[in-house]
Amino acid sequence: MKIDIRMNFKARRVELKTQSDTPDVSNLQKCVDFMHAFMLSFDVVDVVALLRVDELYVGSFEIKDVKTLRGEHLSRAIGRLSGKGGRTKFAIEDANRTRIVIADTKIYILGSLANIKVARDSLCSLILGSPAAKVYSKLRAVTAHLAERF
User: Fold this and answer.
1) Which tens digit of pLDDT belongs to each residue from 55-87?
2) pTM to 2 decimals?
3) How far apart are CA 8 and CA 12, in angstroms?
4) CA-based nearest residue to 134, from 124, 146, 147, 149
5) Which residues on neighbouring strands pair with residue 100, listed in sequence order?
6) Domain named K Homology: which ranges (predicted)?
7) What CA–CA distance (Å, rounded) separates 51 from 30?
8) Which of the four pLDDT bands, split at 50, 70 and 90, describes residue 150?
């Protein structure tokens, strides 16, 4: 990318700047997106894809944006999102080629815009209390429809 990067410990910031031989100024934005996704706890392999593929984005939302939950209800909703041993989360990721990070009440999704929307709809259904089996069947139908379209 030919971008200068340094850590400013006094200001507690990562600073990026283009070099004279940087081929494209948009590389700076790609590097900013890379650092942002890395700090959100996405795997390095997935984050490197942000540098190589132009149509990848990071979407985010909070559980309270979907439904106001407190205490035990919030804990159960987070449990439904991840599933037993992470099965539900991995099933949603694999079905539409996205990566999901659940950090307390915030949810981050890495993928293309259409896939982020499908994953977000699935996660919202789980937050609202839908059983995982119903979400899986809806997800299969939507991914089959998307595969047909492309």
Assistant:
1) 999 999 999 999 999 999 999 999 999 999 999
2) 0.89
3) 6
4) 124
5) 109
6) 65-128
7) 6
8) low
